[in-house]
Amino acid sequence: MIKILFPKDIKQELIFHASEIFKEKNIPFYVQHNEENVSFLASEGKEIAESLVGSVQIQEFSLPYPLVSRKFHPEDSVVSLGSVSFQKDSFTLIAGPCSIENKAMISDTAQFLSGLGIKILRGGTYKCRTSPYSFQGNEHSLEYLQEIARKFSMKTVTEVLGEDLLEETAKVADMLQIGSRNSQNVRLLQKVGMQKKPVLLKRGFMNTMQEFFLSAEYIALTGNNNIILCERGIRTFENATRNTLDIAAIPVAKKETHLPIIIDPSHAAGRRDIIPALVKAGMVAGAQGAIIEVHPDPEHALSDGKQSLNFQEFEKLLGEIRTLAQAINIQIL
After folding, report:
1. Close Cβ partners of 241 (under 8 Å, ≥ 6 residues apart)
2. Where does the pLDDT of residue 85 fall: very low under 50, low under 70, confident under 90, or very high at 90 and above?
3. Range of the structural domain that residue 116 is part of
């Protein structure tokens, strides 16, 4: 890999000229316009780079994901959403129902969560379900999410199911989520990155860590570095849980990348009784937050009721992790 740096005020025809040369050689490349300069990344072509007029620096490296690598960016990145941030020495909570079933249930949930100080509301609008016969979401879900979040002064995150739904979802959501099944949907990753909104990227349930980081690289290549990684469990031979929460992924991600990482204990467990333990394990391992499914009546939820906490269970968990946070010197946001 090579990185060619041009001054910020370089003439566009010089960038166009460089692009044409790499196209002729069938060498993949990406152009980034940053605050300080214009970066030109390519998989090879040092000789071409040296011949270009206007370049000020050429860098060579062997990193498969340079933009999200800690070697290229030693400091921890901070991703902010409203008054809360995903950053070092903090643990930010995102909570809400798997699916927005109706206006009353999302309103009750938001009122409860905001009363506890939770600032970010999650809620599935268009759902990617395993079975085509399962509940796919309410046609008014985005409308309800926007209205209720404004009412209780909360920020929102919801999944972008496909390119065709991106525009209407981006108009409502403050943070865009890439689900596990779409984690290697290259076109969607690029389109979502171009929205310049924070992106919550879930790990594919069969992804290696390198594949996970490369998915983040696709987003970063659009110039959007507001990426939050989410370890949501991977598929293993174990059937006591829905997936296996890869706790080791947390320190690996923090060592290899500069991006914040959170956990999704709900989808990892598939059962509510062990969610508190997984949240605490994630905190101690260094995760910078968690996204947790909360429902006013999980037994009658239209999706993922078995892995959703009711209000009393979530409030109890919040008290427990606040105590733990004091012991390990981090802040709950």
Report:
1. 233, 268, 269, 270, 271, 274
2. very high
3. 79-332
- pLDDT tens-digit profile of 162-211? 999 999 999 999 999 999 999 999 999 999 999 989 999 999 999 999 99
Give the tens place of pLDDT for each residue, 227-237: 999 999 999 99
User: What is the domain count for the chain?
Assistant: 2
Q: Identity (one letter) of the amino acid at 23?
A: K
Q: How far apart are CA 268 and CA 302, in angstroms?
A: 19
CA dist., res. 110 & res. 289, Å (int): 19
CATH of the domain at 111: 3.20.20.70
Phi, psi of 310 (to 5 degrees): -85, 180
Counting Cα atoms < 13 Å in the Cβ hemisphere of 208 gives 3
User: What residues are paired with 31 via a beta bridge?
Assistant: 40
Let me know if 113 is exposed, middle or buried by CB neighbors in 10 A (0-12, 13-18, 19+): buried
How far is Cα 216 from Cα 231, in angstroms, rounded to an integer? 13
CB contact at 8 A, 59 and 5: yes
C-alpha distances (whole Å) from 35 to each of 57, 171, 261 are 16, 26, 25
Predicted TM-score of the model (pTM)? 0.90
Residue 28 sits in a domain of what CATH number? 3.30.70
Please tell me whether residues 97 and 25 are part of one structural domain.
Answer: no
Query: Which is nearest to 138 in space by CA: 175, 187, 176, 100?
Result: 100
What pLDDT is stored for residue 322 in this prediction?
97
> In this structure, what token pair is assigned to residue 14?
């010089």
3-state secondary structure 147-205: HHHHHCCCEEEEECCCHHHHHHHHHHCCEEEECHHHCCCHHHHHHHHCCCCCEEEECCC
